[in-house]
Amino acid sequence: MQKQDSTHRQKGQHLTSLERGKVAGFRQAGKSNRWIAAEIGVCPQTINNEIKRGTVDQVKKSNGKRVYHRQYLPEAAQARYETARLSCHRPDKFASVQVFLAWYVQRAKQDKWSPDASIGYAKRHKLFTPEELVCASTLYQYIDDQRLEIRNIDLLEKTKRKTSHQHHTKAKRLAGRSIEERPKVVERRRQFGHWEMDTIVGKRNGKESVILTLIERKTRCQLLRLIEGRDADSVSYALRGIKREWGACIKTITADNGPEFTALNTAFAGTETEIFYAHPYTSCDRGTNEAHNRMIRQDFPKGMSLDDISPSQVQATQDRLNQLPRKQQGYCTPQQNFEAEARRVRRMAQ
């Protein structure tokens, strides 16, 4: 009988119940342990250990007498394996980390902090001992298992991530200089003062208030303004106030090609701020802006009329997001890093 090609198995993979059945069948056919190992794709010692652990005492009657013999049983081997697996995991810390979990639930509900941000902040500020904390994957597992008051639907990024897919774009004329002309230093996020800009609409009827969003790429600090409409005049009016306060901190702005941004060069005339426009229908050119817009949508979901909100509500959302610890910021907040960079800019200007 010609021996079949051995099956390729991942190193360290445990035997399955099906493979244990094959072991029993091959032994009944008189095959050696080495032959069985090659057939299944494991080392011979694995088969030796498996047979030793799965061999049990059997009793049968012959001529009215009990006859004892030893036999490998795949069912017994599988049961012993499953029992051993129950005791090889780390002990569950859930009961011993209740103080931290209560703190996380409060942060998630009040400030919409992610599990990773909560753990990173707690570690950075030494709010709990290592024994009182769990890692991010364990915290996510608690949420998956519905052991907390937080659910997956409450986790913005976990429910919004999508697989990449192609988009068929149409030709559209850029409103100004292309993002391809933007200095490469902007992409590296090492220099302060480079911003992305967008607007968030409510009912999309073109007549109601919108939220103007600007985000600084290095610190991820955001400026939000409630403006009267999605038009160039409303945007320019809001930018005049932003220029007066933060003009020295704005080196470049990257916007999309919406009609509300066609007058940006005029709005920043006489300043050193450079304006660039993303490729048409390519939101990934402003990935930071797009990701943070989803966070803003937690407070102002699509379809909600923005005529019904106040500037103070928008300010509260800005403060919440700017005080959210970020992993890429070493679990400091965008506001802390932005204020430090702004002070440095002012010192250099003196």
Automatic annotation (TrEMBL):
Residues 179-342 form the Integrase catalytic domain. The keyword Thylakoid does not apply. InterPro entries: Integrase_cat-core (IPR001584), IS30-like_HTH (IPR025246), RNaseH-like_sf (IPR012337), RNaseH_sf (IPR036397), Transposase-Integrase (IPR051917), Transposase_IS30-like (IPR053392). One of its GO terms (biological process) is DNA recombination. Residues 1-23 are annotated as: Disordered. GO terms for cellular component: cytosol. One of its GO terms (molecular function) is transposase activity. Keywords: DNA recombination. Pfam families: HTH_38. The keyword Nucleotide-binding does not apply. Signal peptide: none annotated. NCBIfam families: transpos_IS30 (NF033563). This is Integrase catalytic domain-containing protein.
